[in-house]
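Project standup — Tuesday

K.O.: blocked on the structure for the chain from last sprint. Re-posting the sequence here as requested.
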Amino acid sequence: MGTTKHTGRISLPSRPDPSLWVSKVPFGLNRIKPRHIRDTFKAVWDNRGQLPYAARILTQGVCDGCALGVSGLYDQTLNGPHLCTTRLNVLRLNTMPAIRETVLHADIDELRRMDSTTLRKLGRLPYPLIRRKGERRFSRVTWEEALNEIAAKIRSIDPKQLAFYLTARGITNESYYTAAKVARFLGTNHIDNASRICHSPSKTALKRSVGIGASSCSYKDWIGTDVLVFWGSVAANNQPVSTKYMYAAKRKGTKIVVINPYYEPSMDQYWIPSIAESALFGTKLANDFYQVNIGGDIAFMNGVMKHWFEMEEADPGSAVDHDFVRTHTNGYEELRAHVMRQDWTLLESSSGLSRERMGEFARLLAAAKSAVFVWSMGLTQHRFGTDNISQVANLALLRGFLGREHCGLMPIRGHSGVQGSGEMGADPFSLPGGEFKGGDIERIERLWGFPLPKWQGDIVGVSLEYALLPEDHERKLKVFYTSGGNFLETMPDPEFVERCLANVELRVHQDIILNTSTLVDAKETVIVLPAMTRYEQPGGGTSTSTERMVYFSPEIEGPRMPEARAEWAIYVDLAARVKPEAKHLIGCEDAFAIREEIALAAPNYDGIQHLRHRGDVFQWGGAWLCEGGICPTEDGRGTLLPIELPELRKPEGHFYVTTRRGKQFNSMVYSETDPFNGADRYDVLMNELDGRTLQLREGDAIVVYNRYGAFHGRVKWERVKEGNIEVHWPEGNVLIPKGVYEPFAGIPEYNTTVIVEKAETYHAFKDTKYVERRIEELETESG
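H.V.: unblocked you, prediction finished:
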């Protein structure tokens, strides 16, 4: 941990810099780009019935969008107000009226004809609902009836047949903590959250490499670092306010490098609406793009390190910070020997980049005195995600880019609620302030006053699969309690996921809106519980940003769903009904009591108990974790790890495929057209050279398929790495294999190989077993 405190906000330069302009044509006219002014007026119109309340949410609450951490209109990085269209889009979830009863109680097939975007726009859930097997519509039920039925069902099953899941939808630290406590109180360790599906390899890798489970630096470290690297992260699209930090960094002379299979337009140039110069003329963000193959990052990083070690042989000290390595790391010689054995031909074919290009990046970092590495799901959502992140840590440790100003390792979070989820213990491998093992179990048992189940809980994907186990299996999922989340649109193989959901005896959906998962039949009963938003919760709530800032968001005066309840309060009430004889052990009487308890359970969060007023915030761990190079490991050192190349099996004529986001927030899609490239949701992004080889023209109808599923779309030429294609998420999840998990962190694999063919070719031979034969060839060639 660090002792240096965050030094507060800084100001942007007052004079413009025309060298960074995209164009002298104002507002990017006639260009494909987001229309921020138009989108702002649309948000005003959408919220026109509750404008005063919407304004209070924006000016008083902590953003429930991305995890940059904006309290009111201000963050801890830059002076001046911040507002992005992502936050404005999410705003409507908080101001919507209730769903009309005639719609809410319509025949279930009428509701199923709506997609999640339409369902979201119907409005808020007004009261508890129930739908039993064979019933055609939801019925209204009282809280008493709903919770008693859930409690009775939980009492009737083995705790190993009960699983909890929490999404990232504006959920606060208080709710994560209470859910983690209640799950263990009820005897189950099957509890998981959305963060783990995105960034569990980040935590796992950082723990084993440098002993930390969060970003080692702050956003301020971007501004003035020599090199800022975005690895598999499209921050401009997913965390739009971050473009202000990139602008500030560019004005300080920082070089921005993007490593991604797709030359993402939003990371190349952006019109930042809250900076007049940028809003008018745009800002050139990236200095360079390194377009790796999907899954080629480990090979690329091994190539970079191989260059460094070759540079060291010719000129010692020219690439490696030997003082830092000698004082603060273990494993240097083993890593060096491993990397030097790597074959350049294999590194080039696996990474998709030439030896010369890898050398350019190696020399850039070798000449830099500081660098910050930022990454997201482009690195984590692989079956070798943990190894990807440990490779990034290797680069930082070899150059000493850790524990000091303008240096660090940053897994950038996509949602304001997720950084705190694991830190509050809401996953099967964690407890508040620690891991689910040894001394931490004993520590939490002493604090909570009841024994914890000692068996290892399952990740959510496995829990869902276990719904299909035989009836008498001790881990057959019989009760699934989910706070938000739409598994039909976030997990691989949606048809399989639907079968799993339908095979659960009782599903509980605690949420603020309907989604397509809510409408799936259950084996016995579906119960829907209306939750409050973070702005409605009595006593307010807290959330933790990517840079470990813990923000207080107050309860905001405004309209309420009369029967909605605070998420944490629902858990407490349920637990008391399941075990009334032990309800005195639950605690968590109100938000203030929960924060007092968090401070005791998670030592890093000592200070959360003092957050009570708008604007209250503190940063746990100081400005830099591993300050001075000292890691919170047994010997205070980081570990350099030799990482093997993953086996990337792509037969001739096949493509790697991955998924990307368009104009959306998580699985909530806000436009059918991507504002950065004009792509439709069913456009397949492809390199023109690949398409010409297949005799395709832009706009052609094609089928992308493999042994797992088929995706029907149209060709769109984009600057995607040759041999790779990209489709939108979640539409493209039909191509992704189920049940493939990263071995260290349990994250699902979201990448695979596919065949691409013209639609008429695919359909013309489909009835002659052509498709089946082609898939069999794929299995043979890549098996």
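K.O.: great, moving the ticket to review. The chain has a mean pLDDT of 93. The chain is about 35% helix and 15% strand.
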